[in-house]
Amino acid sequence: MFLSTFGAVELGLIYGIMALGVYLSFRVLDFPDLTVDGSFVTGGAVAAIMISSGYPPLLATFCALLAGFLAGCITGTLHTKGKINPLLSGILMMIALYSINLRIMGSSNISLRNDETLVSLFGTWWQSLPIDNAFNNFLSSIGLSSFTPSTWGIVLFMLVLVLAVKLIIDFFLKTESGLALRATGDNPKMIQSFSANTDRLKIIGLGMSNAFVALAGATVTQYTNFADVSMGIGMIIIGLASVIIGESIFGKGSLMKITFAVILGAIIYRIIVASALRVDFLQAGDLRLITAVIVIIALVVPSIIDRQKDRRRKAKRMKELQSSTKGGDQIASSK
User: Fold this and answer.
1) DSSP 25
2) End-to-end Cα spacing for the chain
3) Which DSSP category does 286 fall into?
4) What is the pLDDT at residue 327?
5) Could you write out the DSSP letters of every residue in 117-155?
6) Where are the alpha helices (DSSP H) in 225-283?
């Protein structure tokens, strides 16, 4: 049980990068961007074909990020310059990316089992350190030998990567351009009155969003040593689920708190899915159904709790008013 949860945390950290990208488009820009399903694969496809062709994994990952940025910019251009509905812009780009990804990969899937990736390079370096043995020996000495994964290095690598992306987003959204981007999502007419170019801001924002999604795709590919043209199906739902779960559990507050909540939401989502798949009557094919149920619960439960709080608040206020009215009547009758 612990090892499956540990694996879910590793995956949750990777998908946290994708969730941060979805947060930029969905919450900051208020743009339902379905490009995510395609750009996630684009990142994996670019990284896989470059690594298998002998290019350094770091360069391949950077090129994957650029490819995602370009895909997002095209979606933004379709919407702002082509005056296409936001939802339709994303759908069109997602469909186009399916063929583009096939062109990039040259086949429907690529295996990286015999190639060096960022994950394998970091893992090799980590294994040269005595940290794993020291930590696992300590856990075994206190009777927790079943809580010892093969390595702690991968989760540390993913943690550093997702925190780096979070800090970049936090920093950018506090700059002048970032504040203009946030204002564009909140009230585009207001920001236009200040002579800001909202079209350019939307294009850049969608580019950044899909760049991080593609980075997540490239990281997942190097984590699993496998890229498949269908690996992006449902990614937008997973991203939305992560954002909604994070906001529902940890609430909204400062920018740093929200982005941290989104990452935790992605981890919680993966743990819930891993736990659900351990139930006997559920199968791997039920993953989409599980995702849909998780999103519905995350959307419905907070609204029910808010309504109950509102009812209790109104009942308390009514009781206070009745008490004050009764007290006033008693004073009036005594006079």
Assistant:
1) I
2) 74
3) G
4) 64
5) -HHHHHHHHHHTSSHHHHHHHHHHHTT-GGG--S-SHHH
6) 235-250, 255-276
What's the confidence (pLDDT) of residue 311?
87
> How many Cβ atoms sit within 10 Å of the Cβ of residue 84?
17
Q: Are 243 and 262 in contact (CB under 8 A)?
A: yes
Residues comprising the chain, all counted:
335
Burial of 110 (0-12, 13-18, 19+ CB in 10 A): buried
Beta bridge partners of 226: 111
- Joined together, the tokens standing for residue 258 give 């929200």
Question: So what's the pLDDT on residue 189?
Answer: 78
3-state DSSP assignment of residue 195: coil
Cα–Cα distance measured from residue 335 to residue 315, given in angstroms and rounded to the nearest whole number: 31
- 76 touches 184 (CB < 8 A): no
Residue 101 in contact with residue 45, Cβ under 8 Å?
yes
At residue 61, the pLDDT reads: 94
Indicate the pLDDT class of residue 171, thresholds 50, 70 and 90.
Answer: very high
Alpha carbon 305 to its chain centroid, in Å, reads 25
Which among 22, 91, 68 has a CA at the least distance from the CA of 218? 68
Handedness of CA 221, 18, 156, 132 (dihedral sign): negative
Residues linked to residue 109 through DSSP beta bridges, in sequence order = 228
CB within 8 Å of 129: residues ≥ 6 apart = none
CB 264 within 8 A of CB 8: no
Residue 222 has pLDDT above 80, yes or no: yes
For 121-163, the pLDDT digits (tens) are 888 888 888 777 777 777 777 776 666 777 788 888 889 999 9
State how far the Cα of 217 lies from the Cα of 207, in Å rounded to an integer.
15
**Residue 226: strand, helix, or coil:** strand
